[in-house]
Specification:
The protein is an alpha+beta fold. The protein contains 34 helices and 28 strands.
Length: 875
């Protein structure tokens, strides 16, 4: 493989570096441990380009603004504005155009914010880099790095490019931006399998990740767009955003409605000319009146207001909505894909088990708050028990982290695992400051990935030495020859301990062994060789895990009851994720597949298993994107949560992207439509409930408005059919539509959730906006309104001989009274309204009816309204 092939653009070519030895890597990059010369670097800079992410092609501001009007909602509003302007009803025209402009400006600003997601990724890249060029160490701008450069890493550095590590010393790198896991990854120079998941590539350091501990040296294998972060940037720029279910349904509904209105108006026009032999001007006015009557001018505004009210309610429940139609999309969700760390779990490591010679002690309490007791079997263990005191002392002394208590919150400064051990020690009643005075630290052996343990040397006032050891059980147990008991020590029995360890590990917990050794040598320093002498006493093994949020488990149960599937997509190991999934109740039998298994599947195979699998572990950004796409291919409405850069492409692709507000990156927030202010899965479920309520209220508004339009249009059609005078004029129709939208239908936007809302299964994503039941109901109510209002018009004008304006005024008031009664019926989709709750349960409905009554009195009797709308006082 040539150099250019190794530093090419594709993921497969980049992925090979972790499977090569350092020597093979340097050879493949035509480099050496001394780095490149200035001339070589310049040549490669011209060949590969600067180490920065490319600027995406973007539409100009004017085109972005004009495209905001390319929307069915806007088309309906513009048609209504044109109609009202043609009728010289300028007040309505300006109001409707105002709604159009406001919607366009909001969309324009939101689209501008979405483009900042790519800018946010570019801002993650490092500014400076320490390299070896011309055989000496120097600092250069990170933008000038090229493949083959040798880069030095120190604690606190941001990795400036993708590196194959050549040397490491206790190197740990936080890769949460790429893997989603907050615990730093331990690095080594050993090659790993070519098909290793991203989180398992211990020989690599990736651009934009953070060095949290130790030092390292690596050779650049990829820069700019050829890095992992660059690959995510490319995916994000290429992801197609889908329209929300509401907008898709509105498009279908708008086309259907437009066709129906044009067809009926044309039939009316032709019928009047041919059959009734009416004048062209008269029939044109009748056709326009019918179109005005049939167009629900107020519907887009009502939808906008209803969605805006949903935004306000969701904000009070910790969900910030960044795009208005997403409110309804949340209510349509059939699958929620959630990250594990910090969303389903607390993102606070907790010691939950302590293995000792008496058995497995259960530790109460979660997080870093040092509160909770100890249980063994059915009994409580005293804090003073030696089986607790000695492991607690070791946990506090062999520790470099700190716990800080501010504003009633306990937070760890340092490694989360060490923070959990500090909490364990404090729960046992020990004071770290006093303990360190009694046993001051003399020296230590820091954690190294080769040894997989940390050791500290302490000396008390009597001159006795104490060596505390903590680390991986297989390493620590090999150095122990006895075990602490309540009365002293006993010989070490590996089988008993391994059975307990297997049981605790099966619960998804990380095991950390604690041991001590008393020395009489009075050492000044502690070396690795001193620790390797062995002779330690095992005092306990801690089982640590990031516990699930209690409210998340309840929220998962609510989702399952509501028929919503919950999927965990995480960068963590499958065993840990499966244990958390079982605790959360993700399924009756939790199934898990790994990223490497996803990699081996075709798109068709993935579609077959994606809905029957609850957990996807060791998932990369590509896997997350494929999973979301596969679920959408199965006709699912997908909500995706995330907080890292690695989540951004999937967040953008999902029907509803949900970012974490507290611990989420700016990239994830800008790529999403919803931001959770509390990073809590339960808030997503609350938002889904609000979304379902909003959709119900939208359907109620549609079910209420359309019979009004249907009734008016039917009256005009029947008048033409019978060769009679029009029962309402176009200007009067606009009045009815405006009052219906501004007062009565708006009251339905405030309706509370109906009982058992979250026990309904998700609605079929393919279900049209108007189903058969709603269509029948709209037609039935339209007929009733026509019978009442058109019947009164015929009786007054043709039977009693009253003036045409009087008959029209009576017809309009009859129509409004009919709508007032129908409003109560629309408060519930199926249930009866003939009860106290149905009649008096909504103050908004009663207020709307009062406003309508006042306006109708003005419409009927006020002289200026009579002049404007050609009405007359009713006898």
């Amino acid at each position: 493989m040539t150099q250019s092939e190794r530093t090419g653009n594709t993921e497969e070519e980049n992925a090979v570096w972790h499977s090569l030895t350092p020597e093979e890597t340097l050879q493949g990059l035509n480099s050496s441990s001394e780095g490149l010369s200035t001339e070589q670097a310049q040549e490669r800079l011209e060949q590969y380009g600067p180490n920065k992410l490319p600027e995406p092609r973007r539409r100009g501001p004017l085109m972005r603004l004009l495209l905001q009007f390319h929307n069915v909602l806007i088309y309906v509003l513009l048609a209504a504005a044109a109609t009202t302007a043609w009728m010289d009803h300028w007040l309505d025209t300006f109001v409707i155009l105002g709604v159009v402009v406001i919607n366009a400006l909001i969309g324009f600003l939101q689209e501008g914010k979405a483009e900042k997601a790519l800018d946010a990724i570019r801002n993650l890249l490092s500014v400076e880099a320490q390299v070896c060029r011309d055989g000496k160490r120097q600092e250069i701008p990170a933008i000038d790095l090229v493949p083959g450069d040798v880069v030095y890493l120190n604690s606190g550095d941001k990795v400036p490019a993708d590196l194959r590590l050549l040397e490491v010393r206790n190197l740990q790198i936080e890769e949460a931006a790429l893997t989603g896991e907050s615990v730093a990854s331990e690095k080594s120079t050993e090659a790993v399998a070519a098909d290793a998941d991203l989180g398992d590539r211990s020989a690599m350091a990736y651009s934009s990740t953070l060095v949290t501990y130790g030092q390292g040296v690596g050779v650049v294998t990829g820069t700019g767009a050829h890095t992992e972060i660059g690959h995510i940037n490319t995916m994000l720029a290429g992801v197609e955003e889908l329209a929300t279910p509401l907008l898709r349904k509105l498009a279908v509904f708008g086309h259907w409605l437009s066709f129906a209105i044009i067809a009926i108006a044309a039939i009316t026009f032709v019928f009047g000319l041919v059959v009734r032999d009416m004048e062209i001007a008269e029939m044109f006015l009748a056709a326009v009146g019918l179109a005005v009557a049939a167009i629900p001018e107020g519907l887009p505004a009502i939808m906008t207001i209803t969605l805006a009210l949903g935004v306000q309610k969701m904000a009070s429940r910790n969900a910030i909505i960044r795009r208005l139609p997403v409110v309804e999309a949340l209510g349509s969700v059939t699958v929620i894909c959630s990250d594990k760390t910090g969303t389903l779990t607390r993102n606070e490591m907790t010691a939950q088990r302590l293995l000792c010679s008496a058995g497995v002690v259960q530790i109460e309490g979660v997080g870093y708050q040092p509160e909770g007791g100890f249980l063994l079997g059915d009994g409580e263990v005293s804090r003073d028990d030696p089986l607790l005191q000695e492991p607690a002392r070791c946990a506090l002394l062999c520790n470099d982290a700190r716990l800080e208590h501010e504003n009633d919150l306990w937070q760890v400064a340092g490694d989360p695992t060490e923070g959990a051990l500090l909490t364990l020690g404090m729960k046992a009643g020990l004071d770290r400051a006093e303990l360190e005075k009694q046993w001051p630290r003399v020296d230590s052996v820091p954690f190294e990935s080769v040894n997989q343990y940390m050791a500290t040397l302490h000396r008390d006032t009597a001159g006795e030495d104490l060596v505390c050891l903590k680390g991986a059980p297989e390493k620590v147990l090999a150095l122990c020859d006895q075990v602490r008991t309540r009365t002293g020590t006993t010989a070490f029995d590996p089988q008993q301990w391994h059975d307990d360890m297997d049981r605790v590990a099966g619960e998804g917990m990380r095991l950390l062994a604690l041991a001590e050794r008393r020395d009489q040598k009075s050492r000044r320093k502690l070396a690795t060789a001193d620790v390797q002498e062995g002779g330690f006493t095992l005092v306990g093994i801690a089982g640590l895990a990031d516990p699930p949020r209690q409210e998340a488990a309840q929220a998962v149960a609510e989702c399952r009851e509501a028929g919503i599937l919950v999927k965990m997509i995480t960068g963590d190991h499958a065993l840990t994720a499966k244990a958390i999934g079982q605790q959360l109740g993700l399924g009756d039998e939790v199934k898990a597949i790994t990223g490497s298994e996803i990699e081996a599947m075709s798109d068709e195979e993935l579609r077959r298993v994606v809905l029957d699998t609850e957990i996807f572990a060791r998932a990369t950004p590509e896997h997350k994107l494929r999973l979301v796409t596969a679920m959408q291919a199965e006709k699912q409405i997908v909500a995706m949560t995330g907080d890292g850069v690695n989540d951004a492409p999937a967040l953008k692709r999902a029907d509803v992207g949900v970012a974490m507000g507290q611990k989420g990156t700016e990239v994830s927030k800008e790529a999403s439509e919803v931001v959770l202010t509390d990073d809590n899965f339960a808030s997503i479920v609350a938002a889904v409930e609000e979304g379902r309520t909003v959709y119900d209220n939208l359907k109620k508004s549609i079910m209420y408005i359309l019979p009004t339009n249907g009734g008016q249009a039917s009256m005009i059609f029947m008048a033409v059919l019978l060769g009679l005078a029009l029962p309402v004029t176009p200007v009067q129709i606009l009045w009815v539509n405006m009052i219906t939208a501004v007062t009565m239908s708006l009251a339905l936007a405030f309706e509370k959730p109906e009982p058992n809302l979250m026990r309904r299964p998700p609605r079929n994503p393919q279900e049209p906006l108007l189903n058969a039941f709603m269509g029948w109901r709209i037609a039935f109510v339209s007929v009733l309104l026509v019978i009442g209002s058109f019947g009164l018009f015929l009786w007054q004008h043709y039977h009693l001989g009253l003036h045409l304006d009087v008959a029209r005024t009576t017809a309009i008031n009859a129509l409004m009274i009919g709508e007032a009664f129908y409003l109560f019926s629309c408060r519930f989709m199926v249930a009866s309204s003939l009860n106290i709750k149905g009649l008096f349960g909504s103050p908004h409905v009663l207020f709307a009816l009062a406003v309508m009554l006042v306006l109708q009195l003005l419409f009927t009797y006020a002289p200026f309204m009579q002049a404007l709308f050609e009405t007359r006082s009713m006898p």
